[in-house]
UniProtKB/TrEMBL annotation:
Pfam families: PfkB. It comes from Streptomyces bungoensis. One of its GO terms (molecular function) is kinase activity. SUPFAM superfamilies: Ribokinase-like. Keywords: Kinase, Transferase. Residues 186-286 form the Carbohydrate kinase PfkB domain. This is Sugar kinase.
Amino acid sequence: MTGQVDVLVVGGAGVDTIVYVPELPLPYADSYSIDSGIRTRAGQTGDFVALGLTKLGLDTHHLDVLGDDPEGDLVRALHREHGIGLTAIPQPAGTKRAVNLVGPDGRRLSLYDTSRAHPGDRFPEETLRTLAAASRHVHVAITQPGAHALPTLLATGVPLSTDLHDWDGENPYHQPFADAADVVFVSAAALADPERTMRRIAERGRAEVVVATAGAEGAYLLADGELTRVPPVAPPAPVVDSNGAGDAFAAAFLYGRLTGEPPERCALFGAVAGAYACTVPATRADAMDREALVEQVAEASL
């Protein structure tokens, strides 16, 4: 990487195998026939955030560990295809992978192979510091070795964001990420009281903005101490898959933030991009481009 980039995405690279199932939860049976096929493609949370940012016109670089394996080759090819800068640190355990079961209504159940990551995994200190210092913003995935990267990233003074995904508000693993980030995204799915958790994040850490996404119900936005509801945006096509919707929301929100938009407008960007993501089959790695985002935000604002 040479010169300054807009966003450095740290962690979250990997490969998913997508299986469309007749229902979720899936009842026990000896076997199922999957007429839609079983497909493996590159793209986990960091990949999708990097892709979303790039499609929106932001210069993006991705740092993570990758194995010397077919799955790692898929991740490298995805970045080459979309012009996303990639610094891949060798991972002897192999590239992270998961199996996503997707129901007819687009809901997803993910099975993560945790054998591909270890608590002691770390990025080279100098590599991390150099990449972060050359970036306007850093988005940190909660995968290892992101946790070890937080002190170095904080020392650079570069603004940070993170996505806590389906955090329950209690699991201590997520807390350092919540405390370190200036912008925190979290799913409301496992939160008994989203507002309470959001305010606690803001009070404990550095967060200027906290967003809790709530799927078809929209989202909650906490900014400047005020909690507001972000209404849902109607998807532009039938909903087929919720995979990647949160990553799309985060990417579009960050696009708005880095282009000087107020939090409420950023949240609208996120809602529009998240709705679009739900219309994209999980077997494809795709994201909304800037022209489509601006057009649909204008329509949603009428």
